[in-house]
Specification:
Layout lengths: L1 H26 L14 H7 L5 E4 L4 H10 L5 E5 L16 E5 L3 E5 L9 E6 L4 H12 L5 E2 L2 H7 L10 H7 L9 E2 L1 H10 L8 E4 L14 E4 L9 H5 L3 E4 L1 H4 L20
Parallel strand pairs: 6-7
Antiparallel strand pairs: 1-2, 1-5, 2-3, 3-4, 5-10, 8-9
Helix pairs in contact: 1-5, 4-7
């Protein structure tokens, strides 16, 4: 009887995977009218990015809209920059230097040019040692080939149901309720797991140490860091984290506003 029960669960699981794949293709349809404010130049990004940097992306797919709504954020996707790897090129011969988890393809490597028509943001872990940086990169490259957690797709589909509305307190968990299978992952969860493997903080829960709270001031109390489960992280968490610096290529390369040339009669230009 137990054996039959296991077979039944296996069949249900396979059906769920197939339906999840169908839904995934539907959710990857692009939205109409997307227009980036600051498109990313691949050559500029490559000159600024360092291994271990996270590239946040404002996607233009239906699934992107769901993630942005559920996290109340601009960012719907995250990829990790790992620099070059021998033989890592796409079908067009472009060098692939990003590791990311995609709905249909799973964990793959992609070129920077893939996001040249999207708004992006670079988040850089500060103080990460060279050894730990290499471990984070190795964790990500070692994950290539894993599948996307399609259990997550079912959770995201709730966003598209008009009733009932999604309570704010549930939104985050709707993108972090995957199957828990270590051979699967979603973009931000996989990156969070990589940084947690070297105990680098992202947005840990912080509480005062009860052993010292009564003896010293509130400003100097010891704090205990509680690591959130990696499935509960969203792309925006790397943006919000106090441990990641926001790197803007235009400023990194040197910016002089006096060198800008404004079109005549530009309505945004102050009158002299």
């Amino acid at each position: 009887m137990l054996k039959g029960h296991g077979v039944g669960q296996s069949i249900v699981s396979r059906i769920g995977q197939k339906l999840g794949a169908v839904l995934a293709r539907a959710l990857q349809r692009p939205l109409k009218g997307y227009r980036p404010f600051t498109p990313s130049d691949p050559q500029t990004l490559r000159s600024i990015l360092r291994p271990g940097d996270i590239l946040l992306v404002e996607g233009n797919q239906h699934v992107s809209a769901a993630i942005k709504y559920l996290t109340q954020s601009t960012w719907s996707h995250a990829a990790l920059y790992v620099a070059s790897m021998p033989g890592a090129k796409n079908d067009d011969g472009e060098e692939c230097c990003l590791v990311e988890a995609l709905v249909e393809e799973g964990v793959v490597m992609s070129p920077l040019s893939k996001y040249q028509n999207f708004n992006t943001r670079i988040c850089r872990p500060i103080g990460l040692t060279r050894k730990d940086r290499e471990k984070v990169v190795t964790f990500m490259t070692g994950s290539i080939g894993k599948q996307y957690d399609l259990k997550n797709i079912w959770d995201l589909m709730r966003y598209f149901l008009p009733f009932p509305p999604v309570p704010v307190r549930w939104r985050r968990r709707m993108i972090g309720l995957g199957s828990g299978d270590p051979t699967r992952g979603i973009c931000s969860s996989l990156i969070a797991e990589a940084f947690q493997s070297v105990e680098y903080p992202i947005l840990p829960d912080i509480e005062a140490d009860p052993e010292t709270s009564g003896r010293i001031s509130a400003y100097s109390r010891s704090e205990i860091l509680h690591i959130r489960h990696h499935t509960l992280f969203a792309p925006r968490d790397f943006d919000l984290s106090p441990y990641f610096a926001i790197i803007k290529p235009t400023l990194e390369r040197g910016f002089d506003y006096r060198s800008l040339r404004w079109a005549p009669n530009d309505p945004d230009t102050d009158a002299e």
